[in-house]
Amino acid sequence: MRRSIRWTLIAWFGLLLASVLAVFGAILVDRVSAKTLGGVDAWLSDRARAMAAALKWEPREGWDFDISDKYLKAVADEGYFRVWGSKGEILCSGSVEGPLSPTGAEGLHSRGDLREIEIDGTNDSRIFVGRSIAPERAGLASLRTTVALAGLGVLALALAGGAWLARHALAPVASLS
Fold this sequence. Notes:
With 177 residues, this protein is of the alpha+beta class. It is 58% helix and 21% strand.
């Protein structure tokens, strides 16, 4: 069986281009994903640190949470939070989501479509802030689809152009045989 030089060249260049496009697409989606979720993590960390800084223990008066209701409402509108005292009592809460008692899971973590942070506060208190990342995940899924479709389109155009170019470039060889 005789193999065509033209189709062999097109197949190899197509495979090479598909590999380059796949790697480029994967890197692009990974970088955008890291940037997007990094923004969510920064938002969570900033809110948790602000709440921790506003929480003070006064031996005579008990807990003092010196942060505006407007700020807490803004956090609750975009996510949810809980602040626990040293004995596990809820000092302040925004929304019904999140655990009822400290989890002890220090730092950032995910639960399904939720991204959360729990940190230590003053005098063994705990601060917990979380929010949904469903919109970000939907955007990233849309980006993956767009990158895959664009890659397939570029590959199809390149293969068609390669077939045309190979046919014309190899025309002198074909006339010899």
